[in-house]
Amino acid sequence: MSASSRNLRYIIIGAGMAGILAGIRLRERGEENFVIYEKGDGVGGTWRENTYPGVACDTPAHSYSYSFAFNPEWSAFYAPGSEIRGYFEKMTDRFGVRDFIRFNTEIASCRFEDGRWHVTTRDGEEDVADVLVAATGVLHHPSIPDIPGLADFQGKCFHSARWDHDIDYARQRVGVIGNGSTGVQIVAALAGKVQRLVHFQRSPQWIMPCPDTRYSEDDKQAFRTDPQRIEDVRSGPEAQARRGRFLAAIIDANSPELAEIQSIVEQNLENSVRDPALREKLRPNYRAACKRMVFSPNYYEKVQDPTVYVDTSGIERIESDGVRMRDGSFHPLDVLVLATGFKADAFVRPMTITGRDGADLNTLWAQHPKAYYAVTVPDFPNFFMLNGPTGPVGNFSLIDIAERQWNYIEQLVALLRSGRCTEVSPSHAALEHYEALRTEAAKKTVFASGCSSWYLDAEGVPQVWPWPYEHFMEVMEKPNLDDYELTAA
Ligand code: NA7
Hints:
The protein contains 14 helices and 21 strands. It has 489 residues and is of the alpha/beta class. Strands 3-2-1-7-19 form a 5-stranded parallel sheet, covered by helices on one side. A 5-stranded parallel sheet has the order 8-17-9-10-13, covered by helices on one side. It is globular and about 70 Å long. It has helices at residues 17-28, 46-49, 81-94, 181-190, 217-225, 227-235, 237-251, 256-272, 276-281, 299-303, 361-364, 398-418, 428-442, 469-477, and strands spanning 10-13, 34-37, 101-102, 107-113, 116-121, 126-129, 131-134, 156-159, 173-177, 196-200, 207-208, 294-295, 308-311, 315-319, 322-325, 330-332, 335-338, 352-354, 383-385, 423-426, 484-487. It has 2 domains: 3-141 and 343-487, 3-Layer(bba) Sandwich (FAD/NAD(P)-binding domain); 150-338, FAD/NAD(P)-binding domain (3-Layer(bba) Sandwich). The structure holds ligand NA7. The site of ligand NA7 has 20 residues, from helix 4.
């Protein structure tokens, strides 16, 4: 086959940040033979689904933007979710990706047969492509807690990602279960604005203080006229110091950087919460950053509002009109919000993905989801994941991660396009070697230092990138083809 002899067809699953990125990059190359399947009715993924009060990204907005499409209009250092969704809407149109998206179309299964991916929608429609890209997001299947009596609650009850906007909250007694990033944002936003607010915490969280900087019209004008200012927010000395400290801290639980972070969060608790009893209730018994760090400029201030009550005594059961605690106390409630997180190990599931010779992704992932350098899987040729399992996690910009992964994927796809091979997938040995090294290193990270979190697999090993971010940048620069099997038809 001669160079550029193959005109490939691509199927991308998901029109969130990563799927739109894939569409933009394909359009840039002049590709038109692709489709992005999206189960929802709009773009933006997590930012379309999460509309709860206070929803915001805890990565600085200027870093949480495509590297090729800065946005001087961000209203704040940490942008609200609705603005982020608006940004993705805009990017979809600006780069001409919208016409390639099939909304309200959920993919049920993907099967590699006769050298191509056969994709079936929930409605039974079929499509075929040479390249399959899963851009299905990380946290979007709500995790509903298994608390006795939950179904008996007679008030309004919903998961944080299914926010009910039709309620007049000012008149309600609201309970929020869960105090990850979501629960903390909801409570900070609702405090003082509802009749009574109870925050149920199974495990208190360390709270990292952060600036509540809003950008003025002058700031925005400066960003418009001088993009270097945006660069500075993204990667100037302050950003580098923050990132460097955090990186050093997570890969080594005994590092001085983690000690520094520990000291910051402890001081935040000491200095912000006046009542010693409340302070003790809010004090975690594990190290800072063991769970995903929660950033908040005002959570401690807000929970001291007289209408807010923090309960850490443990939920016994849900009753028809409220929540019974293990110590026998009872909170009568009208609204119960489940800020209980997501099924973080789902990734592309519940889709069934069948690779070469009937290989089943679910079987390969029986213990935990894995992928060679988080992107490719043996026996699943020409299948690529953006923000797949074991990529970097922990307060980094997932956009930067996806952009680097796309750069890597492009180089593998180029092998198909040029005709050098018709199938590309990593070897089993390469994945096993990667997983062995990764698992060993992951056990030393702060995520394994003694707490429960969505980072841990069933055996308690963090499902994370355990090395410096620079190493991730390096490996994403160029695939190591010695680890790949290239099959020519
Ligand atoms: P998280 O971070 O997974 O937090 C879930 C919270 O829900 C956490 O406080 C859990 O307590 C709590 N939870 C879960 N199940 C229960 C039950 N059964 N009873 C009581 N409490 C429970 O989800 P978020 O939505 O806040 O954040 C997800 C990510 O989205 C976040 O990391 C950012 O990346 C954005 P636990 O700590 O397990 O004791």
